[in-house]
Amino acid sequence: DAKTTQPPSMDCAEGRAANLPCNHSTISGNEYVYWYRQIHSQGPQYIIHGLKNNETNEMASLIITEDRKSSTLILPHATLRDTAVYYCIARFYNQGGKLIFGQGTELSVKP
Amino acid sequence: EAQVTQNPRYLITVTGKKLTVTCSQNMNHEYMSWYRQDPGLGLRQIYYSMNVEVTDKGDVPEGYKVSRKEKRNFPLILESPSPNQTSLYFCASSLGSGLAKNIQYFGAGTRLSVL
Q1: What span, in angstroms and rounded, lies between the C-alpha atoms of A65 and A47?
Q2: How high is the pLDDT of residue B67?
Q3: Does B43 contact A44 at a Cβ distance shorter than 8 Å?
């Protein structure tokens, strides 16, 4: 898995968009970017993944730069329930085995 | 509803008393895995299973055993628990390697305290 770097913490106002950056400058051409989050000691939850095109689902949007060296997870209208640690992981699409969680970004959504 | 179910959610035990944490998934997933999470160390894989009767060690297997007799179940066994196994444990499952998406689904966690 390529190494990923994320800021340790971020704040966001409730109702505003939360933009969480991730650097993965050594990502290989076949590695996807996955995002998971962990809400206070609950099991990690899959959010979204992508290769090079921008992706959107019911939870979030993923913007990947053209050179694929970085990406941004966007929560369009953050709520208090989005307060969590967000993990960016680079791995091959069909790669089995363990997920390697880094330190992640602790997002605090404030009223 | 697709889910990974762990039991118990909380457990306090004493050193040396054998215990089993159960994990069950209803998604017909081939791959299952156990992680432990400790402050400052993140999530570390204990054991994993690629399919029925196929298990292998992860990064921190010492003191643990697993079995995979049925596709849906993957219990974690601590034959002689010690205080350094006090931790938050997660079971996870996914379709399997080589298959589409390979998204891992996690259980709610088991908080274990060994006195």
Answers
A1: 19
A2: 96
A3: yes
Evaluated on CA atoms B51, B56, B60, B62, the torsion sign reads positive
Mean of the per-residue pLDDT values of chain B? 93
A contact test, residue of B34, B102, B112, B113 with most A CBs within 10 A:
B102
Q: Which tens digits make up the pLDDT trace of A46-87?
A: 999 998 889 999 999 999 999 999 999 999 999 999 999 999
Residues of B in contact with A6 (CB under 8 A): none
Place of tokens 């039991």: B7
Contact A89, A76 (CB under 8 A): no
Query: Is-contact A10 A72, C-beta < 8 A?
Result: no
Using a CB-CB cut-off of 8 Å, the residues of chain A touching B100 are 93-94
